[in-house]
């Protein structure tokens, strides 16, 4: 008789439980692996991750576990493009989750996606997207733009 598949339960900030194959979680997350090695049992509370983010992490881990590392090539490129087809806010949530869970693959792929999306945006648009207040005076900003014109070439 087949041994039942072991799972780990992740609990989002809203209290929603998300089951993930234990092998997938241990393969993808250093944080989860360390917790299991230290003997921590029971559900894993992820107090700063909403349910949608936890669900995306579980989907990423499951896909990686069953299909191997994602490198953006071949059929995986289409899956990855669809997976990361979400808002910048959702991508930032995934970055925070990947950082906390120490999942370098998810962190790398999400960061590359954010970088690709903002690479040709003007400084003003990037500030608006991320809610960053301009703390330069107009004179200081003009000085920086004249000192580093190459940094602004693609953004005009």
TrEMBL record:
UniProt pathway: Protein modification; protein ubiquitination
Keyword NAD: no
Chain ranges of the SKP1 component POZ domain: 6-65
Coiled coil regions in record: none
Superkingdom of origin: Eukaryota
UniProt family annotation: Belongs to the SKP1 family.
Self-association and partners: Part of a SCF (SKP1-cullin-F-box) protein ligase complex.
Stated name of the protein: SKP1-like protein
Species name: Ananas comosus
């Amino acid at each position: 008789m087949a041994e039942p598949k072991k799972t780990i339960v992740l609990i989002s900030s809203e209290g929603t439980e998300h089951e993930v194959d234990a092998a997938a979680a241990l393969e993808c997350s250093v944080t989860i692996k360390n917790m299991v090695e230290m003997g921590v049992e029971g559900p894993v509370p992820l107090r700063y991750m909403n349910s949608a983010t936890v669900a995306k992490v579980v989907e990423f881990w499951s896909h990686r576990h069953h299909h191997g590392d994602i490198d953006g090539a071949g059929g995986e490129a289409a899956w990855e493009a669809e997976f990361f087809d979400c808002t910048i806010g959702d991508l930032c949530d995934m970055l925070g989750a990947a950082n906390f869970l120490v999942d370098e693959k998810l962190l790398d792929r999400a960061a590359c996606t954010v970088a690709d999306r903002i690479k040709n945006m003007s400084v003003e648009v990037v500030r608006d997207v991320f809610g960053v207040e301009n703390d330069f005076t107009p004179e200081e900003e003009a000085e920086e733009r004249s000192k580093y014109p190459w940094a602004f070439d693609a953004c005009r």
